[in-house]
Fold:
Amino acid sequence: MRKAMIVWGGWPGHDPDLCASMIRGWLKAEGFEVQIEITTAAFADPAIHDLSLIIPIYTMSKIEKAEALNLCAAVRSGVGLAGHHGGMCDAFRDSVDYQFLCGGQWVAHPGNIIDYRVDLTRPDDPIMKGLKSFEHRSEQYYMHVDPANEVLATTTFSGEHAPWIEGVVMPVVWKKRYGAGRVFYSSLGHRAYELDVPEIRTLMTRGMLWAARE
Structure:
């Protein structure tokens, strides 16, 4: 049985406890044994190198250097990493090691909760296959991203809330390699209920399965 670890905490506005519970259920349904941790100290445990998948849900907050380096080493050795929204890519803002691992960092969501479109760029990728571009109402994440990411979906900023970014095409969903490990990220899912949007739940489940080490 493959083993996954969810580490949740940080800013409560992203419903980290509820998201952890939902994702735990999805992974158990896929045959994973899932452990839940609530402190970043879990990332420093040598035992994480034996896991199949790690899911951080830890908006903002801080991570100790040793914790970040052990997490990076685990993924580099083949452990998968997957996550969503601020729980993964607005976490540990002062850790460049962690940002290099994830492939992106949140910097703004102009207009806060707005209507926007998610456009699939790789509809034939197994993670996105059968899905279609869709409208969504939430935070439209503006991010600093790694050009090495393999982008699966994007969104385009209208400029209504920040005129200087009109027409900017921003990655929403990506996957990447980090050493021998696979990393998956979706910027969707500001609140826990959004994870039950069919498109979001599907791409998140497939993305986690893709990232997980066999």
